[in-house]
Amino acid sequence: MSVPITRVPSMLPVSAPVFFGAGLTHKGLVRERNEDSILTDPSGVLWAVADGMGGYGHGDVASDIVIDRLSQLPDNTLAPQAVRVQLQAANADILARTHAGKQMGSTVVAMLVQNFAATIAWVGDCRAYMLRGRSLRLLTRDHSVVQDMIEQGLLGDSERETHPERHVVTRAVGVEPDVEIDTITMPLIAGDRIVLCSDGLTTCIGDQRIAELLASATTPETACDKLMIAALEAGAPDNVSIITLFAAEG
After folding, report:
1. Is 189 exposed, middle or buried (0-12, 13-18, 19+ CB in 10 A)?
2. Which of 3, 54, 182, 215 is 20 to 30 A from residue 135's alpha carbon, by CA?
């Protein structure tokens, strides 16, 4: 009987990407205070944007709680389960801080980079985008009244930013006893660029403009600057928070 032979192909040299990023947050040109909070990580692993819900009051407290909980993620944790655990803990913390019927909450988008893959978790209408080559892809789905109406065919996508309920979200951290968290995990390759942002950015500039500015930037810092300037030039009626992450050749 012949013995099966397994041929092991030679390995092609692969340069693993390295990750580096930057973040900016601004109160905008209309709001008196900034209720957004951001988490940046010099090691390139953990990033987040939390948008406090000012309509409920104490939105800055809620967003700070979310970011504080996420910052406690241990090294070498198992994503996405660990991200979910921290957001659920933040949900309980916010509910415990609610007094005299004054509800507060926060939307959030968070990204954990492990083994050259990004796990993105979100609640509400903070967004994550990825630019690969010339193509910009929205990685998240808004948890909002307007998004539900669009998907039901009751509203056109072009009407998204002019609808009177465009800021009404259907999910937030700290509003209900249980929070539903969506996650995706995707591999990253050298050249990828990712944006995490609050709706203060996407209310001001569209996807095409985001893609143009992201593609033209030479560093994450300049990408944040370009996007922030564009939002401010558009009037910035809300707080604006931006994080950009670049994957470069190792």
Report:
1. exposed
2. 182
- Show the domains of the chain with their CATH numbers: 21-248 (3.60.40.10)
Contact assessment for residue 129 and residue 141, using Cβ atoms and an 8 Å cutoff: no
Residue 151's CB is within 10 A of a number of other CB atoms, namely: 11
Q: How far apart are CA 146 and CA 154, in angstroms?
A: 9
Strand partners, 246: 20, 193
Place of tokens 């040299």: 13
Which carries the bigger pLDDT value, residue 146 or residue 217? 217
Cα R_g (the chain), whole angstroms:
19
* DSSP 8-class letter at 11: P
248 vs 227: CA distance, rounded Å: 20
Beta strands in the chain (DSSP E): 18-26, 36-39, 46-52, 106-114, 117-123, 127-132, 135-138, 182-187, 193-197, 240-248
Is-contact 200 36, C-beta < 8 A? yes
Structure tokens, 222? 């300049």
pTM, to two decimals: 0.90
> Taking the chain, what is the end-to-end CA distance rounded to the nearest angstrom?
47
